[in-house]
Amino acid sequence: ADDYIKKPFSMKELLVRVKSVLNRTGALNAAETLKFEGLELSLKQRTCTIDGAPVQLTRKEFDLLAFLMDSPDRIFSRADILTAVWADDVYVIDRTIDVNINRLRKKLGRYGHHIETKLGYGYGFTTNH
Predict the structure, then answer these.
(1) N-term to C-term CA, the chain
(2) 40 exposure class (CB count in 10 Å sphere: 0-12, 13-18, 19+)
(3) What is the pLDDT along the chain (129 residues), one digit of tens a residue?
(4) Rounded to whole angstroms, how far apart are CA atoms 113 and 17?
(5) How many angstroms separate the CA atoms of 105 and 101, rounded?
(6) Nearest to residue 105, comparing CAs of 73, 59, 57, 72?
C-alpha cells in the first residue's frame, strides 16, 4: 500500500492520488521532459532550464512545477496540490504552497506569471498570457 483515502472522497481526489502514485513509481512518465517555450523540465534528470540556462529548484519546487506543467491551463485546489506534491510529508499547511509558489515565480523570471492564482481555489500553469 502506498496511500489511502478516507471516506467519503471525491473522484477528483482519487484521480489526483492515483496520478501521484504513478508519477512517483515512474509508470506515468512517458514523456521525459515538460516544455513551454524556453522553459524546460527534465523529469528524468530532475533539472530545470530557461533558454538552456539552469534554474536551481528545491525538490518540492521542482515537483510542484512539474505537477502544474503536466496539466497546463488547469487550476488545482490546494488540497489537490498538497496530495500530489506533499503526500509523503507528515504535516504541511496551505501556506507552504503559497510560499513555494512565490519562490517559483521569482526563480522562473519571465515565466513566473504563467503560474496562475485562482483566488479562493488554488493554482495552475497557464499557457495564455
Answers:
(1) 41
(2) middle
(3) 667 778 887 887 887 777 777 766 665 545 689 999 999 999 989 999 999 999 999 999 999 999 999 999 999 998 889 888 887 666 777 788 899 999 999 999 999 999 999 988 899 999 986
(4) 27
(5) 6
(6) 57
Statement: the pTM of the whole predicted model exceeds 0.90: no
Contact partners, residue 84, CB within 8 Å, separation at least 6: 16, 17, 19, 20, 23, 67, 76
67-102: burial string, b at 16+ Cβ within 10 Å, e else: bbbbeeeebbbbebbbbbbbbeeeeeeeebbeebbe
